[in-house]
Amino acid sequence: MSQAHEIKQEDWMAKRWRPAMGWLYMAVCAFDFIIAPILWSVTQAYYHIVPFVQWQPLTLQGAGLFHLAMGAVLGIAAYGRTQEKMAGANNGGLGNNGPDLSQGFGTGTTYVTPNATTVNNINQGSGVNNGSPTMGGTPSFGSPNATSPTTGKPTGPALSFPVI
Length: 164
Description:
Shape: flat
Number of strands: 0
Distance between the termini: 67 Å
Number of helices: 2
C-alpha cells in the first residue's frame, strides 16, 4: 500500500470517528428497540409459538451499561470537538489567528474570549458593566473590604441588581 493511501485512510478515520459513533449508536438502538421486537413477534406468530414471549432488549442487559458507556463516549467526543472548534482547529475557528475579538464576538453580545478583559455592551442598556457592579457605593459581591458602616465588622456579600 502506498504512503499517500495510508494517510488518506488515517485522515478519514481521524475526521469521521465521532459521526460514525453516533450513527452506530443510532443503528444499535433502532435494531434493539424497533426492528428486533417486530421481527421477534412476527417470528413467534409465524411459527405459532404459544405463549408469546416479549423481546428483551440486548442493550439493557447488565443494567444498561452499554447506553451509559455510549453516552459518555458521545458526550466527551462532542465536548472535545467543541473545544477544538473554540481553539481554532477547524477553518480558523475562534483562535488567535482570526480577527480581533477583544471587544466580544458580535453586536450586542456578552461573549468574551478567554484572554479578553472587556465586554461589548452595545444594546445592553445604558449602564456600563465594568466587571464590578455596585449599588449605591456598596462594595460589590466578593469584595474583601465589605464592612458594616456602623460596627466596622465584615459583612456578607453586597446585593447587586442588573441595570434594566
